[in-house]
Amino acid sequence: MPGPFLTRTLSRTRLLRKLPLVRLMAVAEVIVLAREHMNKLEPPERRRLVELVRRGRARPSNLSARERRELSALVAKAEPRQFVTRAVEKIAGVPLWSREQDRR
């Protein structure tokens, strides 16, 4: 009888076979982008971010005001707006409008 790790891996493999290659590549590119943005944080900052997210459990009220400010600062350092813009551009294959373009 296979263990939970093997069972989970096999189910993911079946799921990946159902995804067209283009979609699989798009997902892979978004994962690489996410890693690049997480790497903007130092290792202790990444650990603290994960700790705060786990402690908060998707509810800001589970964190103190100080912890919410700290979480906000860590997320801002990872540049989420730039991440989303780049991810959409990767998936859509077309550059999005930006504020710099509008100023020209």
For this entry, give a set of tags.
104 residues, mainly alpha
Beta-strand proportion: under 5%
What characterizes the major β-sheet? none
* Anisotropy-based shape: flat
How many domains comprise the coordinates? 1
Rounded to an integer in angstroms, the radius of gyration calculated over CA atoms is 18 Å
Helix content: over 70%
Distance between the termini: 64 Å
Give the SSE layout.
Elements: H1 4-18, H2 21-38, H3 43-56, H4 65-77, H5 80-92, H6 99-103
Helix pairs in contact: 2-5, 3-4
Would you give an account of this structure?
This protein has 104 residues and is mainly α. It has one domain. It has helices at 4-18, 21-38, 43-56, 65-77, 80-92, 99-103. It is flat and about 45 Å long. It starts with a helix and ends with a helix. The relative contact order is 0.10.
Quick rundown:
The chain has 104 residues and is an all-alpha fold. It is 75% helix and 0% strand.
